[in-house]
């Protein structure tokens, strides 16, 4: 049983690395290079080539894991790569807490406990395969098709559950459905509580990207039509005070619609969005 389950791990790891490598081969736009953790480490001008290089390494390891023959050294490469990537995440999180990973999507998500948990899980799976796998994964599936499919789907679901990059495909729709079913704002003509707005704001990508630099509670808020404007004070990289002005949907739940503008307090001039 141990050898059988271990022999299926290269398929799951290989598929994940194949996806991640394909995403990285697209490179990074100048704007995304500024926010990417690797760009903060190697410099924005080298971020896109370095990101493609990482993607190329992921694709090579994925090909080795997915294609015959089945060799222990292939899982060994995955162990070394996963351990190195876990170390990179730790260094990036310490060096630049607000930096984004973008590991599985062009949408840059901040490095969080879920990112570390996913990388750690891949490392454990790769080590398990290195230590116990004794056959190529198609042979293991053919020996127990139903059990193999269930195990693969369960592991894939766990990895995706730890991937904030794909939340908009499953987690956000679930949250929207819960709101529709509970109707917390349905039929209300009175003032919408600020707590509802803050809860929605904190689930949005703009808030997650600026969260580490926010240095105050809500400074001001007001309603404009179908939007609620919420202001926070933030710390800029150069130390100048600034205000993050968020626009949040007022009477609907749609975190993807949240927008932000950063305004320099010394000049009242927008410096970013």
Mean pLDDT: 85
Count of extended strands: 5
| Number of separate helices | 11
Considering DSSP H and I runs of 4 or more, what fraction of the residues is helical? 55-70%
Number of domains: 2
How would the global form be characterised? Answer: globular
Question: Strand order, biggest sheet?
Answer: 1-2-3-4-5
Unreliable residue stretches: none
Describe the biggest sheet?
5 strands, antiparallel
Class of secondary structure makeup: alpha+beta
Order of helices and strands: HHHHHHHHHHHEEEEE
The percent range for strand residues is 5-15%
- First and last CA, distance: 53 Å
Q: Radius of gyration over alpha carbons?
A: 22 Å
Overview of the molecule:
- It contains eleven helices and five strands, in the order αααααααααααβββββ.
- The model has no long low-confidence stretch (mean pLDDT 85).
- A five-stranded antiparallel sheet has the order 1-2-3-4-5.
- The protein has helices spanning 2-24, 30-35, 37-42, 44-66, 72-95, 113-132, 137-143, 145-161, 167-182, 194-201, 205-210, and strands at residues 220-224, 227-235, 241-249, 259-264, 269-272.
- The radius of gyration is 22 Å and the shape is globular.
- With 273 residues, it is of the alpha+beta class.
- It is 57% helix and 12% strand.
- Helix 1 (2-24) packs across helix 7 (137-143).
């Amino acid at each position: 049983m141990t050898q059988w389950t271990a022999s299926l791990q290269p398929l799951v790891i290989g598929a994940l690395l194949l996806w991640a490598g394909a995403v990285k081969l697209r490179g990074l736009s100048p704007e995304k290079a500024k926010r990417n953790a690797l760009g903060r480490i190697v410099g924005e001008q080298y971020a896109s080539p370095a990101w493609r290089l990482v993607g190329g390494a992921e694709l090579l390891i994925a090909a080795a894991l997915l294609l015959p023959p089945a060799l222990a050294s292939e899982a060994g490469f995955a162990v070394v790569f996963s351990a190195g990537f876990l170390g990179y995440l730790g260094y990036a999180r310490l060096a630049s807490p607000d930096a984004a990973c973008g590991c599985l999507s062009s949408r840059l998500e901040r490095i969080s406990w879920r990112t570390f948990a996913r990388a750690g899980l891949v490392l454990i799976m790769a080590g398990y395969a290195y230590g116990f796998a004794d056959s190529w994964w198609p042979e293991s599936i053919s020996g127990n098709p139903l059990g193999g499919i269930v195990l693969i789907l369960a592991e894939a679901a766990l990895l995706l559950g730890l991937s904030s990059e794909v939340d908009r495909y499953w987690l956000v729709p679930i949250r929207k459905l819960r709101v529709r079913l509970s109707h917390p704002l349905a039929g209300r003509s009175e003032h919408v509580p600020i707590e509802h707005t803050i809860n929605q704001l904190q689930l949005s990508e703009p808030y997650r990207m600026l969260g580490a630099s926010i240095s105050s509670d809500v400074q001001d808020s007001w309603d404009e039509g179908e939007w609620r404007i919420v202001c926070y004070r933030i710390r800029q990289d150069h130390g100048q005070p600034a205000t993050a002005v968020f626009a949040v949907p007022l009477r609907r739940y749609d975190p993807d619609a949240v927008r932000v503008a950063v305004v320099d307090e010394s000049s009242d001039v927008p410096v970013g969005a």
